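Title: Prediction job returns without error message
Component: structure pipeline
Severity: low
Priority: P3
Assignee: unassigned

Description:
Job completed but the reporter wants confirmation the result is attached to the right record. Sequence as submitted:
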Amino acid sequence: MKTTLYMLQEQSTIQMMSYVLQTKEGKLVVIDGGNKQDAQHLQDTLVRLGGPEPVVELWLLTHPHSDHVDALLEMFSRPHPVKVKRIYSRFLSYEFYHANDYPGCTDSRTTKEYNEFAAAHPNLCFRYEKGQKFVVGSAEITVVHVPEDESLPMNVINNSSVVLRLDADGQRVLFLGDLGEEAGDRVLAEVSHEELRADFVQMAHHGQFGVKKSFYEAVAPRACLWNTPQWLWDNTQGNGYNTGPWKTVEVQGWMRELGVRYHFVTKDGEHALELPYPLD
């Protein structure tokens, strides 16, 4: 068995982020998970990989948006065969999110719902610490960055994304969640470029309105992971290519300028990346 990173495809028209890592020892890790509509497919994937009663060593959440957290909450809302050992998050306060949501936005409700879930599962839910390392079989996951305070009152939920780095079989994968420009600048100022450098980078905020080009220059990836459905990849709301409000096409241009040759995009289906992946 090879260490394999599974990049799951959205099961609705809504963008989402869901990864399953299976180490070469067969151990399973979930990163985020997706929307409620993605819960059953995620569960089916875990059963396919881990047997009828799969064991998830770690479930790692990047930030409290529904397209990252709701699959977990949906799975636990009903009987399921998955045994999860530990769940980690580093969410800021519901009050901070709620006060700084843009007018009419209800995104902070995910934090409230997760807080209720964590209170009901105190022996399951834990808090990340910066620099924390998780060793799962032959894979190591490092917590590169956590939101340490509530000093970024803009794009608040995305900017509170945790940054994770997977090191396995001689390659690195950097997970950015939905990290925004302001938090991205903070990470660049506080974390060495060597710690950020990676073979694969998960594109921040589905490849649009995430970190700046300078962040990706520091990472110097050889491959990009895009959790991006077709409409978002094309930046269209039905009026034609690149006529929408998103920056996806612009960010694709950044990657061309950086010489990135490999792109794995959920619009094209699911991806199973066996590490080490041949990138040369």
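Comment from assignee: result matches the submitted record. The two ends are 22 Å apart (CA to CA).
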